[in-house]
Amino acid sequence: MLLRARIVVPVSQPPIADGFVRVHGNRITAVGKWAEAEHKSEADDLGEVILLPGLVNAHCHLDYTDFVGAIPTPRSFTDWINAIVDLKADVNDTAHCESWLHGAAQCLRHGTTTLGNIETRPDLLPKLWAATPLRMVSFLELIVIRAHSDAAQAVADATDWIVNHKPPRGRAGLSPHAPYTTKPDLLEACAGTGLPMAMHLAESAEEDEMFRQGTGALYERLAAAGREMTDCGSGSPIAHAQRNGVLRKNLLAIHGNYLDDDDLHLLAENQVSLVHCPRSHAYFGHAPFRAEALRAAGVNLCLGTDSLATMRDGDAELSLFDELRVHYEEFPDVSAETLLQRVTTNPARALGMVGQVGELATDAFADLISLPFRGPVEKAIETTVNHTAPPQAVMLDGQWEVPPPLFVKGEQ
Ligand SMILES: [Zn+2]
To answer: Which of its termini does the chain have fewer beta carbons within 10 Å around, N or C?
Structure first.
């Protein structure tokens, strides 16, 4: 299949005016200028569009999609935790699957083709994987709070499951949920597997207080739930993660809303990637996000949607374009090129899929989206990061999931 477009934005190289992408099976086999394309008569001309890689959403909880608008902005993070625990208690398997699939459909419609998702019910996952074309990076959530729970067994069970279950597209890993819902031996066991990991880290002021001071509402709540609290009161959540071996290249740190300079350097030194979720950040009213300091420290920074349970807008959908816009409004000095990398090549690296997703390049998966565009090539990236509507077309694994309205050739 040969696709021609007014502009091709490969991300890993500068935009190409009047470009082409050749697809064979589920892979890209060539990208370049139309004038240099071979076998031109085979082409499908997409016309006045920007053709770019499908977006890579590094963090989501698909199963919370149907909770949109269910939790008004809470007074505190601990209040939100209490509210979500109550909501989850009423969700049966059918409702879980429906919500997950609603979220997957939204991601796809808004141009995400690879998704890093936290999974809470692995028993349902093979069925869900088979029901979406999305390229899934599924992190199995591990929550082990009580002092006497067997953390090593929990990690061994999850690892066994991963060895025996492969998503049709993508990969699986572990998500020790957060420092406050896990124990040091669980973190050490996760780190020992070498699997991809994603962990909520330094998300709230209360988590920060729990680990730095050994006090506060979250500390009290977890102590009451039977957590051994002797690991609190000795440094930041990031320092805690470092002590227990999880700060490493295969870790995606989620949020990082409360980071001091030492934390930034620990993340950078250990090549940890970090995903920022702009709308979730705004919902909680967290401290200003240190995007510029993270970039300057050399941390691989990505954007994610988080779930719809942390959106102010009750009509919100899982759209990375919406996150990009909020992020851009907050950081107007960041270049459009850098912003685009935060939803393409950076999350590809964070999810261990460099060269496979997030760019249009030879041997990458044929995951593409197109946006209507009639302007000059110099405006293509700026237009892309300000885009609002769902993409015009979405291809995943070489298949049109949202077909182009009409190929130009078909109109002749
Ligand atoms: Zn999350």
So the answer is: C
